[in-house]
Amino acid sequence: MHNTVKVTDKVYWIGGNDRRTSLFENMWPIPNGISYNSYLIIDEKVALVDTIEFGSSDDYLDKIEELIDGRTIDYLIINHMEPDHSGAIKTIVEKYPDIKLVGNLKTFKIIESYFGYKDKWYQIEDGDELNLGHHNLKFVMTPWVHWPETMMTYDLTEKILFSGDAFGSFGTLDGGIFDDEIEFEEYYKDEMRRYYSNIVGKYSNMVQKAFKKLEGIDIKYVCSTHGPIWRNDVNKVLSLYDKWSKFETENGVVIIYGSMYGNTAKMADSIARKLSEQGIKKIRIHDASKTHISYLINDIWRYKGVILGSCAYNSEMLPTMENLTRTLEHMGVKDHLLGLFGSYSWNGGGVKALHKFYETIQWELVSDPVDTKGIPGNEAFDRCESIAKAMAEKLKE
Ligand SMILES: Cc1cc2nc3c(=O)[nH]c(=O)nc-3n(C[C@H](O)[C@H](O)[C@H](O)COP(=O)(O)O)c2cc1C
Ligand SMILES: [Fe+2]
Ligand SMILES: [Fe+2]
Fold it and tell me: At 55, is the pLDDT very low, low, confident or very high (cuts 50, 70, 90)?
């Protein structure tokens, strides 16, 4: 028996775990791995919902074979064309040449440039239904979560939402597949936020639009393409994604700095200590030159307070901080309290550049930036304390 899991009587999880890849999308570190979830509905007609990354599971076809037991696959529903879900399309089509590829016009525009297969296209529109016998599927267009063609498939019969990347998470499924079989808070929540903030976060307003479209739909299962399947506390994953896409944060502070020789770093520690003395417990400090940006963005998505520091570097910020602030601008991250600090030796540049970032991003600056010449002394530390006090006050409001 291959490792397949029943979601309901006739719906199977046939995904795979990837513990080998170091960087998802060749960008994001995945020390906890990732799962590619694919689903098979065995009814009068057989439908496959999304596939997996090419080569990520060498028994993918065997799993399908075992479950369909000599039958063919009638439909492959493509909720998302990104290669981590479409990587096995070619293999599937070659094995089941009568298959119909179910997608919307934007999906096919992408498929055209990847695979072709025009004779197999089965184009559906928003709200269209597809009857498999017992199961009746309805397609819900949710564009730009996080590609233009993204859609969800809702099984009206068993109230299963096949949501694509939405409600997904980094982290492999280590035995437990369903939300009631895992330790979500300890293990997955942080990885789910890191996944959301880095992969989907830029499209938060489109996530909100998707929520509007799902309003009133009774969802008993959320079957995403990455991470656990939700069946016990569906509301939890929905409300987390709702909160994150509204930029709702916790009352804490993340301090992120770029520092070559430790002067800016010292100020970061001093600000953090003063925040702690003000009663703030959720405080995280990161060195942007060491910690991968995906973790920095994750903590920015988590905490209301963001305090950024940089030494001057060729009249600008340290490049690692430049990369972070530029990414935040591109993502259009909203609703934070901001503090700024740094060190320089002649004409400055780091804090000035951070101030330009502030003018673009328009978060609320809690107090004057602290730009220190050389090694910070008592005066600089006093001014750091002012940032901490102003931040703590705003957070307590
Ligand atoms: C490559 C390099 C470029 C620098 N560029 C500037 C600059 O443009 N303006 C300035 O005032 N200081 C500049 N500095 C000096 C540092 O900003 C200064 O030593 C600062 O105190 C370092 O802070 P840190 O200990 O947090 O790295 C530069 C230093 C280096 C090594
Ligand atoms: Fe994707
Ligand atoms: Fe994905």
Answer: confident
Structure tokens at 353: 């550049």
Range of the domain at 136: 5-245
Ligand 1 pocket residue status of 310, Cβ below 6 Å: no
3-state secondary structure of 91: helix
Query: Which CATH number belongs to the domain containing residue 130 in this structure?
Result: 3.60.15.10
Q: Is 312 in the pocket of ligand 1 (CB under 6 A)?
A: yes
Domain end (from 245, 269, 284): 245
Mean pLDDT of 144-161: 98
- Which ligand has an atom closest to residue 148 CA? 2
Structure tokens at 105: 């016009």
* pTM greater than the 0.85 cutoff: yes
DSSP state of 98: T
345 lines ligand 1 (CB under 6 A): yes
Encoded amino acid at 177, one letter: I
Q: Of 185, 217, 245, which marks where a domain is finished?
A: 245
Distance CA 39, CA 368 (A): 54
d(CA 53, CA 165): 13
Could you tell me the distance, in angstroms and rounded to a whole number, from the CA of residue 36 to the centre of ligand 2?
11
Whether 289 is in the pocket of ligand 1, judged by its Cβ within 6 Å, is no
The verdict on 198 and 110 lying in the same domain is yes
